[in-house]
Amino acid sequence: MDRGEILGRAAALRRVCVGLVFVLLGSCLATGVDFVEAVSLHEERLQSAILRLNTLRAEVSEKQIPLSKRLSATREETKSLRIRFEKRCTAHDRKRLELRELEDRVTEKSKEIDYISRMLFGEYFANYKASLSSGEQELYGVSIKQLNLLGETGEASKAEVLDHSLEVLKESLSRVHSVLGGKTYEGEALGTDGVLVGGTFIQAGPVLFFADTLNDQFGLVEEGLSLRPTMRRLSESNEELIAAFASGESRLLPVDPSLENALLLAEATEGFAEHFRKGGIWVYPIVFFAVLATVVAAYKFAQIFVIRVPDPLVAHELARLLRSGEQAKAASLAKKQPEPARAMLVNAVEHADEPVELVEEVMYESMLSVQPKLERFLNVIAVTAATAPLLGLLGTVTGIIKTFELMNIFGAGDPKPLIAGISEALITTELGLVLAIPALVVHALLSRKVAGVLARLEKLSVALVNSLSRRSVKGDFDV
To answer: Of 385, 379, 380, which is closest to residue 441 (Cα–Cα)?
Structure first.
């Protein structure tokens, strides 16, 4: 029993005693008992209650010290347990935090490994496989195929795939070291006649040569549509260098800095006839118009640029002769002039006796008859300049339609046929523009020359008419 419980009981006992006193007084008043006797009776009871209270207090005092000691010990034990609990909670939280950090690190490392194995290794191995020459496919291509099979089947674990990837990586690094220093290895290649022959591959960096000493074939290995490496013959001097290197007599090799691009460019060079044939059927009307325009232009140049128009002084001289009455000399002088001015001047001399207005009309009529002759066939050049680009565009559209039809049948996986088809389709446009531009320039030159000739003829006629008009005015004044 602790101290609080004892004190509670004592207080309750005191209240009971006080209550008994009041009850006693009430009973005495009610029953008429002597108050003195009742008081003495109750005093006895009160004394016994006080004795009991003192006894209880003594018991409380005796039990208070052990209980306090037990309470202090319990508090100390509780405090130590609380400290141990807090330490355990702290250690548990720290372990949970460390575990979470470890899980995050493991997740990050797993992502890094997946990125390396799938992205970096995948891109590297794709470039590595593409960099292998046709002669190296049998040496290094097997390991890459095995790695691809492991990834496709899905039966191998990530660790196995990663281990095999590292092996392929080591193999590629060793191959790089060996290629940089130059190496030779045995293999088979297609000769120039298409027959598979055995020989020695000589690789120096990205350049690969093949030497077949038995059949005396030496050349450069090129990548083609065939799965086998194909040999391309080189010049005699270069083949001698390859043969000497294969036999160990020399350490020199012919190297193409353009990596076969110069050879491909030389092979791609084509002549005019082959270039025209690639354009298709629409090249023929363009070529026809080109020939026609060239012939007409040559004829018109020969016709127009040899024309000589007399100086206006000739008109004044003719007018002087006509004013002096020397008709025969004027006719002789007019006939000596070059065409087309000759016909105009002869007609003017023949009608010199007529009024000036009639002479002017006669000369103008002669000019009108000359103009169609000078402008004849110029419209052919103009039509050619306008039609050639349209024919070229028609050929281009036709070629592109055929190219897309082939794409619809064979697909568009390889862009080379598509590019080749479009380039061939553009040949007609090229030829049409090559024809149209010079035709426009020639037509402009010839038209300007015709206009110049007509202007000089008109100037000559105006000079003659003015001179004859002065004669008429002088005659009127004489009258």
So the answer is: 385
Closest CA to 133 of 201, 211, 232, 200: 201
SS3 content of the chain, % helix, strand, coil (to 5): 75, 5, 15
Give the span between the Cα atoms of 34 and 25, in whole angstroms. 10
CA 386 to chain centre: 37
Which residue, among 337, 355, 356, 357, has the nearest Cα to 346 in the 3D structure? 337
Which residues, in sequence order, are CB contacts of 57 under 8 Å at separation 6+? 6, 10
Separation between Cα atoms, residue 346 and residue 335, nearest integer Å? 6
Write down the pLDDT at residue 21: 62
In this structure, the strands spanning 217-222 and 196-204 are unpaired
Nearest to 53 by CA among 1, 21, 20, 8: 8
Distance of CA 394 to the CA centre of its chain: 29
Q: How long, in residues, is the chain?
A: 479
How far is Cα 174 from Cα 180, in angstroms, rounded to an integer? Answer: 10
Closest CA to 366 of 337, 332, 341, 349: 341
| CB 312 within 8 Å of CB 463 | yes
Q: Got the DSSP string for 380-415?
A: HHHHHHHHHHHHHHHHHHHHHHHHHHHHHHH-SS-H
Tokens of 455: 């202007």
Any idea which residue has 């799938």 for tokens?
118
Strand-pair category, 217-222 with 207-212 = antiparallel
Structure tokens at 163: 């281990």
Query: What's the CA gap between 411 and 413, in Å, rounded?
Result: 6
Please give the Cα distance from 352 to 359 (Å, whole number).
Answer: 7
Q: What is the DSSP letter of 118?
A: I
CA nearest neighbour of 234 among 246, 217, 248, 251: 217
* Rounded distance between C-alpha atoms, residue 476 and residue 352, angstroms: 16
105 CB-near residues (< 8 Å, 6+ apart) = none
Alpha carbon distance, N-terminus to C-terminus of the chain: 179
Mean pLDDT of each 10-residue bin along the chain, 479 residues long = 63 69 60 64 80 82 80 87 88 84 84 78 76 66 74 71 79 70 71 74 72 74 65 72 74 65 58 70 87 89 80 75 76 77 75 75 78 84 89 85 75 63 79 90 89 82 76 41
- How does DSSP classify residue 120? I
> Does pTM surpass 0.90?
no
CA distances, 180 to each of 104, 175, 185, 203 (Å)? 43, 9, 15, 9
Count Cα atoms within 13 angstroms, Cβ side, for 401.
7
| Structure tokens given for 236 | 């005699």
**Residues 461, 363: contact at Cβ < 8 Å?**
yes
Q: What is the structure's pLDDT at 441?
A: 92
